[in-house]
Amino acid sequence: MTLEQTPAPARSDVRRPAAASTGPTRPFFKRGILLSIGAVAWGTDSLIFGTDPSGSFEEALSSITSGTFQLGLLGLLSVLYATRALGAGRLARFFLRFEVALLLLAIGSTIADGIGVSDLDQAGWAMLDAFWPLSMLGMFFIGIRVAVAGRWHGKERFWPLIAESWGPIVVPTFGIFGSTVAGVVSFVHLCLGYGVLGQIVARKEG
């Protein structure tokens, strides 16, 4: 007697288990790209019109480009928070939240300038405008802290300090040499500083 074993036909209604998801390898890509775009856009605007725009068109264009840059900074702060780049303590988290508050007020000033409602001769508007340089000064101290904390490595550790030295470099340049020279310095610094930092963030794997 011959015995034959015929394999059972494959069932079409049984699905193979899906491969386990490992998550995005570059979770901060979009935020990094936004930072680079904003930095180059605002830098280009500064190169063409200087750092002290005049007229409604120049003011509106400056507000659009600088506002894009500020949104990129918010993205950068969220990455610093997520990766605990300043440290894991409460003080580090508080300082990042405080910087976000400064930056949001600076964005409010940018919007007010862009739509032409601000008046720097009035104390309230002048105080709001002051949050622009204050927020950039805060970013400088954040860059120092990232370098000191050492939780980011390689060029990730020190490039934030290079990028965030914009305020201490460009603001005195404006005071000494005027808007045109400061615009050139701002363009170079933004492209080499925040523009490159955005690419570093975009390629960061977590």
Protein model, in words:
The chain is mainly α. It has one domain (29-203). 70% of the residues lie in helices and 0% in strands. The chain contains 8 helices and no strands. Helix 2 (56-82) runs antiparallel to helix 3 (90-114). The N and C termini lie far apart (66 Å). The relative contact order is 0.17.
Fold topology:
Elements: H1 29-49, H2 56-82, H3 90-114, H4 123-129, H5 131-149, H6 155-163, H7 166-177, H8 179-203
Helix pairs in contact: 1-2, 1-8, 2-3, 3-5, 5-6, 5-7, 6-8, 7-8
Short structural summary:
This protein is mainly alpha-helical and 206 residues long. It is built from eight helices and no strands.
Q: Biggest β-sheet, characterized?
A: none
Radius of gyration: 24 Å
Following the backbone from N to C, one meets helices and strands in this order, namely HHHHHHHH
Mean pLDDT over the residues: 89
Give the end-to-end Cα distance, rounded to a whole number of Å.
66 Å
What is the β-strand count?
0
| Number of alpha- plus pi-helical segments | 8
Residues in β-strands, percent: under 5%
State the domain count.
1
Low-pLDDT ranges: none
Transmembrane segments: 32-49, 61-82, 94-118, 130-148, 169-197
Region (Disordered): 1-23
Keywords: Membrane, Transmembrane, Transmembrane helix
List keywords for this structure.
single chain; 206 residues; mainly alpha; 70% helix; transmembrane; membrane; transmembrane helix
